[in-house]
Input
Amino acid sequence: MADEGIDRGAQQEELEAALPRLIDRIAQLRSELDESERTVLDEILVSAAVHTEKVQADDIGVNDKQFMKPMSVHMTAPMREQVLALPSRFGITR
Amino acid sequence: MPPTLADRVVTLAGTLDSAELNNLRLLLGMAAGTLVPSEETGQEPRASLRTTLACLSAIRNGKVVPDRGGLLYRGRPDWFSGERLNELIQESHDRRPVARLYERQFVAGGGTIADELARSNLLLDLVRAASNGMASPTGIASYLYYDAPGMGIVPHVDTEVFALNALFLLVHEGRSVQSSLVVYPPTGPPLNLRLSPGEVVVLDANAVVHGRSSVGPEERVHVLTIGFRPEGADGITPFAL
Output
């Protein structure tokens, strides 16, 4: 059974379009932090990238995704590339 | 007192649209997948993990009962009979051949019996009682299988389809029975929940990090998970992917 009337393809496109906006907002937040807070945020960002390297590449049909629980199922190939690039985007040394 | 990093992230979250907010939860959930396993040493968790867990919990901002650490219910409802349990166990076996591997678990969409349960008023009443009355069914039920050595799922948060998650332990058998559902509340130690067949848990699963530790040799676990969506989410339209 499925949720009725939901265009999952369009939602996936919206998520992909939103990720660069979110990363820009995180960059703004990061620029306002002191060094200790920035260190903590950087560890979170690097950790997100490290785990993204380990999760399965997205090859699941969008209509099958509704049955998968972990949010990682949202991680399409373009989103994956952006998350993997977070450490370099922010100049964080792992 | 100046705002903490968690305070700042939660403030940022309050200014995001629903797609951006979904992606923030995604990033934090992915971070937890690295940070939680690296912290399982019995020591005080690092600031990065504390911040991640606190942000995931607080972003929901009190939309469900906040003081149970994400575990909203554990028990065996009166209406969940042995006959119904056996029907679901049989259906889980029937659906196993079509299950698909995702990370370290096999997943199959629910069959007729699971879908009927996903739409039942009895289950809806249970989830609403556990979540302060704010839940609507997504109608999505999935069978999860951990039936080969090493299978499990790393700590994560769930999609909006399973934002509130009724989890039924159907089968846990084998020569060794060692794996468990593990919930990581924003404060305090992890909760290791070794459920009995027929036990039900309701999790605030989009906000609390949880996972399943790895099964051992000849250990087999079948779980039915049913999704619900919190209602009244401060104008945010949750994603349904």
